[in-house]
Amino acid sequence: MFLKEGSVVTFRSGPWNGLRFSGMPNLKPNSIYTFHFVLNQKEIYYTYELINSSVVTRMVLSPNGVLQRYTWIDRRQGWLLYLTAQMDNCDRYALCGAYGSCDIDNSPACGCLKGFVPKHPNDWNVADWSGGCVRRTQLNCQNGDGFLKYPGVKLPDTQESWFNMTMNLKECKMKCLKNCNCTAYANSDIRNGGSGCVLWFGNLIDIREYNENGQDLYVRMAASELEEYESSNQKKLVKIIVIPIGLAGLILLVIFVILHVLKRKRLKKKAPLGEVTMGHNPERDHTNESEKEDLELPVFDFDTIAEATDNFSSSNKLGQGGFGPVYKGVLRGGQEIAVKRLSKNSRQGLDEFKNEVLCIAKLQHRNLVKLLGCCIQYEEKMLIYEYMPNKSLNSFIFGLALLKP
C-alpha cells in the first residue's frame, strides 16, 4: 500500500508478511475488526470487517496524507483515534535514502547499514539523508559474498523484487547467491517459523528499525566486510564476558579481604592482654595492683611470629620436646627469639597454658632466658623467649635440655 502526494510517494506500508504489513507493526488482531490479505496468481486484495456490528468505525486520509482509523465512543459522544498508519518521522518514505536505515530512538534518526557510508557526508551533517549510502567495499560475485542479518526491520521497497511462496529460507539464500544482482533476501511469510522467499535487486530503499514486530532481512555483503564485522563482534563478546567476570572477581576479593580483617579482629578480641596475663583463676583475685603490673606480658600477633620464624621453617627448628617444637626467629627490629610452640596434640588447655605463663613471669630470674611474651591466636599457643646461643638455666627448668643443640 502506498500513499502519494501527486507523483511523490510519502508512505509505504511494506509487503504483507502473513500477519501484517511489514511497515505497520501496530496492526494486530483486535476486538474491533478482523482483516484478511489475499495473494494468488489471479488477484491481490486486502479486506477487513467489524467483529461487532454495533461498533461504528471510520478510516480517514487527512489532508496532509496521514491514514487514520477512528471508533465512535457513546459515553464520550465523540470519535477516538484507534490506529495511525504513520507513527513518526521514520514512516516518511525513503527518509534515509538507499541503504540507509531509520531508528526513531536514535539521534540523528538516520544511519547507514553496516559496511556502508554516506554518499554525500556534507549533506548528512545538515540532516539531509536523501542521498543515502554507498558500499564501503564493492561486491565480488565470484569471491565469497555473504549475508548480514538485520533483525526487527521494515522490509525494503519491493518495486524491484521477486518472490516465491514455496521456497524455504535456505533455498532463498542460495537463489540470491547465484544472482550477482541480488542484494538481499527474506522470508515472505513469518508464520510458523517462516516460509516463502523475497529477493531484492538494486538499491534497498525505505528500511526502518522496530523494537518489536519487525522482520529479519539478510543483506548481501563482501567477504572482507563480513570478516571485519565478525571480528568486531568477537571483541565485543570478549568485553561482555571479561569485564563482568573481572568486576565480580574484584568484588569477591574485596569481600574476602574485609572478612579476613574482621576475622583477625575477632580473634584478637578473644585474647586481650589482661586476660592472658592474669587468667580467670579466682584464687588470684586478691593480687594487688603492683603485682599485676609486674606480671604484664606483651601479646604477639601470630603473623608476626610466623614471619619471624620464616613460617616455622624446618631450618629454624631448634628441637622438639614433649610440649611441642621450638623455633628460632628474628623479629623485624632484629631481635633474636626462641618460640616454644605448643603441639596441637597436647592435652594442655587454655587455662593451664595461661597459668604456665603467669608462673614463668613470676619466676623470672637473672640467670634465666627472659620470657618476652606469648601468642594465643588461631588455636595456637606459643611462648616467646629471648634467644641465647648457649644453654642457660632455663634449659633445666623448662626442659630445653632435652632439645638438640
Characterization of this structure:
It is a single chain. The chain is of the alpha+beta class and 405 residues long. Among the domains are: 226-269; 278-402, Phosphorylase Kinase, domain 1. The protein has helices at residues 121-125, 169-177, 223-269, 273-278, 289-295, 302-308, 350-362, 394-397, and strands spanning 2-5, 8-12, 33-39, 44-50, 57-61, 67-73, 78-84, 100-102, 110-112, 116-118, 133-135, 146-154, 161-164, 182-186, 197-201, 207-209, 215-221, 317-320, 325-330, 336-341, 371-377, 380-386. It has an 8-stranded mixed sheet with strand order 9-8-16-12-17-14-15-13. A 5-stranded antiparallel sheet has the order 18-19-20-22-21, with helices on both faces. The chain has a 3-stranded antiparallel sheet with strand order 5-6-7, with no helix packed on it. Pfam families: PAN_2, PK_Tyr_Ser-Thr, S_locus_glycop. The chain crosses the membrane at residues 241-262. Residues 141-222 form the Apple domain.
